[in-house]
Design brief:
Radius of gyration: 19 Å
CATH architecture of the largest domain: 3-Layer(aba) Sandwich
Strand order of the largest sheet: 3-2-1-4-5-7-6
Oligomer: single chain
Number of helices: 10
Length: about 290
């Protein structure tokens, strides 16, 4: 199996909140539609290759798209998953988001990102990446991002884990597609809760605690979930993903929204929209748009 196909198959198991929901994409589309009323042709930079972003942008015939990531295979895999037609051409730019590239400066009307910032230390890594994004935008450009923040009230990881374990024990009598999709959705919610619990109300994640929670979760899942396709799904959902040039593939920091917005404002952005995420994560996952 090729690296591109392997990455695409793995990512296909993920669901909201780790991937954007349909409602979140609809909100992002509304923001873009307001913005592009000003342009006959517009340019978008995607940090990463979020398939939902590529699929959304493929609707526009006046849009030039550059997908920017450290791993070309990852970009190719995400393009494959997007379902966009062959006539929609995406330019790939290979590099590390933490580095500034002169070839990108002042070239874009919109920058899109999905949970990009939590791969960097807060606040220093955030400042560097935000400054890069600011410089890549043209005057009056906009930055739209879906971001995970530490909530005021932390949902109980162990309580939700117990609920899902009971559900799997009674429901997973086979490896039907419906069961696999539900299992994957539950795991994605639990992984998000696990990250928030490892943050433990401080800026930097406790990686030892995150690893401990992960092993406990895998052990509990193995006790109740049938093997076969469900095991394949579990392996994909827990594998760390591609890494190169020392790029971290695990979350590093989950600041509170108020702390993060101070850093965004200091760069020169001003907040235009702050939209809640879906149900359980309405206060943690936010869709934000900023004007330069």
């Amino acid at each position: 199996m090729s690296e591109v196909k392997r990455l695409a198959d793995r990512w296909n198991f993920f669901s909201p909140p780790i991937r954007p929901s349909n409602r979140e994409i609809e909100e992002i589309e509304k923001i873009i539609n307001v913005k592009i009323g000003e342009y006959k042709q517009f340019r978008v930079l995607i940090l990463g290759g979020t398939p939902e972003f590529i699929s959304l942008l493929s609707k526009y015939n006046n849009c030039d798209v550059v997908a920017f990531d450290i791993n070309k295979s990852n970009l190719e895999a995400m393009s494959l998953l997007s379902g966009s037609n062959n006539n929609f051409i995406i330019e790939y730019f290979i590099g590390n988001w933490i580095n500034k590239y002169d070839d990108l400066v002042g070239k874009f009307d919109i920058v899109l990102a999905d949970t990009t910032m939590y791969f960097f230390d807060f606040p220093d890594g955030w400042k560097t990446c935000l400054n890069n994004i600011y410089n890549y935008l043209r005057n009056d450009g906009i930055f739209i991002t879906r971001q995970l923040f530490f909530p005021e009230i932390l949902p109980s990881f162990s309580s939700y884990f117990d609920i899902f374990i009971k559900s799997w024990r009674s429901d997973f009598v086979d490896s039907s597609r419906d069961n696999i999709e539900q299992y994957c959705a539950d795991i994605c919610k639990l992984k998000t809760l696990m990250v928030l619990e490892a943050a433990d109300s401080v800026t930097s994640l406790d990686q030892k605690k995150l690893k401990k929670l992960t092993y406990e979760m895998i052990d509990g899942i193995q006790r109740v979930v049938p093997r076969g396709l469900l095991k394949v799904a579990g392996d994909a959902l827990f594998s760390p993903g591609p890494s190169s040039e020392g790029c971290k593939c695990l979350p590093v920091s989950i600041p509170r929204k108020e702390e993060a917005l101070v850093e965004v404002k200091n760069v020169g952005f001003y907040l235009e929209k702050d939209l809640p995420g879906d149900v359980l994560f309405s206060e943690s996952f936010r869709t934000l748009s900023f004007h330069k």
